[in-house]
Amino acid sequence: MERGKMAEAESLETAAEHERILREIESTDTACIGPTLRSVYDGEEHGRFMEKLETRIRNHDREIEKMCNFHYQGFVDSITELLKVRGEAQKLKNQVTDTNRKLQHEGKELVIAMEELKQCRLQQRNISATVDKLMLCLPVLEMYSKLRDQMKTKRHYPALKTLEHLEHTYLPQVSHYRFCKVMVDNIPKLREEIKDVSMSDLKDFLESIRKHSDKIGETAMKQAQQQRNLDNIVLQQPRIGSKRKSKKDTYIIFDTEIESTSPKSEQDSGILDVEDEEDDEEVPGAQDLVDFSPVYRCLHIYSVLGARETFENYYRKQRRKQARLVLQPPSNMHETLDGYRKYFNQIVGFFVVEDHILHTTQGLVNRAYIDELWEMALSKTIAALRTHSSYCSDPNLVLDLKNLIVLFADTLQVYGFPVNQLFDMLLEIRDQYSETLLKKWAGIFRNILDSDNYSPIPVTSEEVYKKVVGQFPFQDIELEKQPFPKKFPFSEFVPKVYNQIKEFIYACLKFSEDLHLSSTEVDDMIRKSTNLLLTRTLSNSLQNVIKRKNIGLTELVQIIINTTHLEKSCKYLEEFITNITNVLPETVHTTKLYGTTTFKDARHAAEEEIYTNLNQKIDQFLQLADYDWMTGDLDNKASDYLVDLIAFLRSTFAVFTHLPGKVAQTACMSACKHLATSLMQLLLEAEVRQLTLGALQQFNLDVRECEQFARSGPVPGFQEDTLQLAFIDLRQLLDLFIQWDWSTYLADYGQPNCKYLRVNPVTALTLLEKMKDTSRKNNMFAQFRKNERDKQKLIDTVAKQLRGLISSHHS
């Protein structure tokens, strides 16, 4: 029962479940029916469920049938209508198909056009995108093209700027393109190329500057010369209200543009064409000849590239090398002025360029570097000038060299370089110049003295007289009163020598110009040089003439007269120097001219030469003396040689009328003394071993002739017997022997007023011995004649007494 109840309960439960499943199937979407059916198949009541399902289907079919039956007529109507619609639809379909066919046929071209339009729109869109991209890339390409053009035209600094813009501004915008990557990779190479090319331009510039430094320097020195000439004109003709520019403002017309867009200026690396500029009235500025743009470009390029220090070191190193080359003088520089000029032009050109670089760049060169170079240049230049100027023997070349050095110094001083050492060196060259002048004037004086006729200058007209007086300061009232023709007392070498001394002073003055010396220093220099000319050069020339072997007494007399007049002219030379230097001779420390001493010394030398010459002439006449010392005969007249000698002396002393009285008297006295001494030596010479009284008497006649000449007063100014005293020794000696007055001599010997005071016992004994030997040898029979024997004894006695006097005198 219970089992039945339980089965009944389970059957109800199953039925309920199946009902639920059926409802769920009916109400659930077919997509989700799977789990429901699965639950049926998972259960054990599958058959019962199928039965219920069949039952439910039949129920639904009956309901559908009922519904269909209810709606059948409507359905039939609908089918009928549908069939009608179907026919109409078929017609419509046919019409649509026909219309479609027509439309397809008619729209085929439109489709083609639409396809073309589509492609065109696509292309247009692509073109627009391409244009946009190209507009983005075009500036890059334009900049790159511009860069290439700038590189091609060697505008390297603008190219570097373009490269910076390209790298930092344009390329980042199109960095994803391959060509941009190529450009980016090429930028370092372009920088190096710019760097190398700019350095190459700099090297070309440096080489060009080195080659053309002399042209730059020549132009700068021409400017300095023009400015100096202008200054001289302004000083001579001062203009009211005129304003002088500074020399540097006048000289320098710099082209300070660092960068030029002109292809020509970019390509130039040094000197511009100035061949036709020498014909212009104005000399172009030294810096106008130079295009400095390579330096500026290279400096800026290296600065931008961060290698400025490298560039500065390279530039300074190269310029130092060039400075050493410029400062190396050619070996033959001293031969011509052009050698010195070219040397100076190169140095000036070098430092003009450096000065311009100093003032137009910031830090490429500095003042310390310039000063260092200048110190080196100054020392080397001075050493070279000292060496080469020492070879120069032409004073004109030395003077031209001095003017060139002054111009060189003035030019560099304009640019701010200290040149005091150059002027100090010019003072050294001044001494050398003085030496060369002295050598030149030595030749001039030698030619004047050699070509002179040593005769008074004849004057035949007033014109000639004034000409001579105009050349030499001479005044003589008595000579002016004399009628023409007349003669100046001096010969032609007096005005010539005087004028040459003035020319020498002018030459000295020329060297002192532009040396920035005071008037006192110039005056002192001229006076010292003139003193050297007088005391050394002219004095030596006069001495050489005076000492010549073939010089005659007439020439010597004329030299004495000439030097007397030149001595008087020294005061006019003093005035001449004072006038050209404006330094009064009374000024403290003023050097005095030694001309008076020079001419006095020359005159004294000429006087001594006259004395010597006279004595030599006397000796020449005495060599003609031919005494027969053994003769016993007397001619009762003086010897012929002596007569000729006296005649020569008379004619000679007649020429001495223009000499100062003391000179003529001294010459006459010297000649007489030398004649007396020579006659005494002739009498006492050892070769005359024997002489007779007759020969002694003949000799006495000659001495009397000499005494007669002395008494005749050949030269005025002597007191009565002064000239005769020259022969007093001979006279007393001859009187002693001829008069045989030994008793008086021996008795009065040693007394101040004795008759034979001038007779030396040694001389008397020497002559007595010669007469004693003669008595012994020539009188073979003297012992047989009493007088002869007595005379011989007397000679022996006198000789013995004389020896006693001599021995007592020595003791």
List keywords for this structure.
single chain; 811 residues; two-stranded antiparallel sheet; rod-shaped; EXOC6/Sec15; EXOC6PINT-1/Sec15/Tip20_C_dom2; transport; Exocyst complex component; coiled coil
Write the layout of secondary structure elements.
Elements: H1 2-27, H2 34-42, H3 46-152, H4 156-170, H5 178-236, H6 247-251, H7 263-267, H8 293-304, H9 308-326, H10 337-360, H11 367-389, H12 395-414, H13 420-451, E1 458-459, H14 462-471, H15 477-481, E2 486-487, H16 493-512, H17 519-546, H18 553-568, H19 570-581, H20 595-622, H21 640-655, H22 661-684, H23 693-711, H24 728-739, H25 742-748, H26 761-778, H27 786-810
Antiparallel strand pairs: 1-2
Helix pairs in contact: 1-3, 3-4, 4-5, 5-8, 5-10, 5-12, 8-9, 10-11, 10-12, 11-13, 12-13, 13-16, 13-17, 16-17, 16-19, 17-20, 18-20, 20-21, 20-22, 21-23, 23-24, 26-27
Give a quick summary of the entry.
This protein has 811 residues and is an all-alpha fold. It is built from 27 helices and two strands.
How would you sum up this structure, described in words?
- It contains 27 helices and 2 strands.
- With 811 residues, the protein is mainly alpha-helical.
- Among the domains are: 15-69, no CATH class; 220-226 and 286-417; 741-810.
- The chain has a two-stranded antiparallel ribbon.
- The protein starts with a helix and ends with a helix.
- Mean pLDDT is 77; it is low at 238-281 and 777-784.
